[in-house]
């Protein structure tokens, strides 16, 4: 190493501390370079450079100007959205539809260029589902790279307003970004997978009653004090909400969840829980209706300032082993393995 440094004009004068500093600086620089090249390689290898074969195109230069109009064309189940902002509600009621958003890196929601936005509260629409910016009512639907604010409900504080409502079958969201405030994601029925995605909100912003969901390698961000999950599981069925290998961060003093119904079952595992998570971790629904007698709130192998501590509530469980994706979703043959 000294010979290499000398060759390039560096003079070693026998000071071991000075040499250690040079060596450390080189190692840091090499590490940074390696990380940079890895990120650049990932972005290059996973760029969606061409429109999927057979796709119906939407947006500037596309066949249709709106997503809703395009979905009326049933000549293909594959749709490609060009960069832009689409101010509309999208209703998907046909099985096996795949929608791809234009992106520079299909594994990174921050590289995407498509926005779907809507400003409608549940009170205005008549129900939570009807307020959804994107509503899924059929099995086998997959959404890719819908961002920034990806699927957004911009109604804001003061009312329930859904960004994404999923009501049927198998569903996958891949490198998507869901933004809202209260009740951002209505994961209500079926088996659902969210990979390398982003979800934000403040109050009960991941909620539903009869779905099993697996969220992995994703970011969940709180934008104010509140509760991340509100499981409405109301019987001893097979359903789970699982947040796996993800980052929980944000502002405010937040709980991992509270039980909307008496059999709420939620697990956080192998994740980094930020300082926004309060020491108690979990909260009852209310003092009058605690809903804690049959809940399962599990935590396994989490890290960070908000991870398990001696102040956790009595109805939380420190797990001795993780839960598997197959336990939660059953067969995963329908999941895009690039996002696992």
Automatic annotation (TrEMBL):
<dbReference type="GO" id="GO:0005576">
    <property type="term" value="C:extracellular region"/>
</dbReference>
<dbReference type="GO" id="GO:0045490">
    <property type="term" value="P:pectin catabolic process"/>
</dbReference>
<keyword id="KW-0964">Secreted</keyword>
<dbReference type="GO" id="GO:0030599">
    <property type="term" value="F:pectinesterase activity"/>
</dbReference>
<dbReference type="GO" id="GO:0042545">
    <property type="term" value="P:cell wall modification"/>
</dbReference>
<keyword id="KW-0063">Aspartyl esterase</keyword>
<dbReference type="InterPro" id="IPR011050">
    <property type="entry name" value="Pectin_lyase_fold/virulence"/>
</dbReference>
<keyword id="KW-0378">Hydrolase</keyword>
<comment type="similarity">
    <text>Belongs to the pectinesterase family.</text>
</comment>
<dbReference type="InterPro" id="IPR000070">
    <property type="entry name" value="Pectinesterase_cat"/>
</dbReference>
<keyword id="KW-0961">Cell wall biogenesis/degradation</keyword>
<comment type="function">
    <text>Involved in maceration and soft-rotting of plant tissue.</text>
</comment>
<feature type="active site">
    <location>
        <position position="204"/>
    </location>
</feature>
<protein>
    <recommendedName>
        <fullName>Pectinesterase</fullName>
        <ecNumber>3.1.1.11</ecNumber>
    </recommendedName>
</protein>
<dbReference type="Pfam" id="PF01095">
    <property type="entry name" value="Pectinesterase"/>
</dbReference>
<feature type="domain" description="Pectinesterase catalytic">
    <location>
        <begin position="61"/>
        <end position="317"/>
    </location>
</feature>
<dbReference type="InterPro" id="IPR033131">
    <property type="entry name" value="Pectinesterase_Asp_AS"/>
</dbReference>
<comment type="pathway">
    <text>Glycan metabolism; pectin degradation; 2-dehydro-3-deoxy-D-gluconate from pectin: step 1/5.</text>
</comment>
<dbReference type="InterPro" id="IPR012334">
    <property type="entry name" value="Pectin_lyas_fold"/>
</dbReference>
């Amino acid at each position: 190493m000294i010979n290499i440094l000398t060759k390039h004009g560096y003079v070693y004068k026998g000071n071991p501390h000075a040499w250690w500093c040079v060596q450390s600086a080189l190692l840091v620089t090499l590490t940074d370079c390696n990380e940079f090249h890895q990120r650049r390689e990932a972005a290059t290898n996973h760029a969606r450079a061409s429109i999927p074969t057979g796709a119906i195109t939407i947006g500037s230069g596309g066949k249709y100007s709106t997503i809703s109009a395009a979905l009326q064309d049933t000549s293909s189940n594959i749709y490609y959205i060009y960069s832009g902002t689409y101010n509309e509600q999208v209703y998907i009621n046909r099985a096996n539809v795949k929608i791809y958003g234009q992106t520079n890196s299909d594994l990174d929601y921050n590289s995407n260029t498509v926005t779907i936005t809507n400003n409608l509260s549940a009170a205005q629409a008549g129900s939570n589902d009807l307020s959804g910016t994107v509503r899924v009512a059929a099995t086998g639907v997959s959404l890719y790279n819908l961002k920034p604010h990806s699927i957004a409900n911009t109604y804001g504080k003061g009312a329930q307003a859904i960004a994404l409502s999923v009501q049927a079958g198998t569903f996958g969201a891949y490198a998507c970004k869901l933004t809202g405030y209260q009740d951002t994601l209505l994961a209500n029925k079926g088996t659902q997978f969210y990979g390398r995605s982003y979800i934000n909100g403040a109050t009960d912003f991941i909620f539903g009653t009869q779905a099993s969901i697996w969220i992995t390698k994703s970011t969940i961000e709180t934008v104010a004090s509140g509760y991340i999950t509100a499981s409405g599981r109301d019987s001893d069925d097979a359903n789970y909400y699982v947040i796996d290998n993800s980052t929980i961060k944000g502002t405010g003093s937040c709980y991992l969840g509270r039980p909307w119904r008496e059999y709420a079952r939620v697990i956080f595992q192998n994740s980094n829980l930020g300082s926004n998570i309060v020491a108690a971790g979990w909260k009852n629904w209310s003092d009058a209706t605690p809903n804690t007698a049959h809940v399962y709130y599990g935590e396994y192998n989490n890290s960070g300032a908000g991870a398990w501590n001696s102040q956790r509530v009595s109805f939380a469980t420190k797990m001795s082993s993780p839960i598997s994706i197959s336990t939660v979703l059953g067969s995963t043959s329908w999941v895009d393995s690039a996002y696992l």
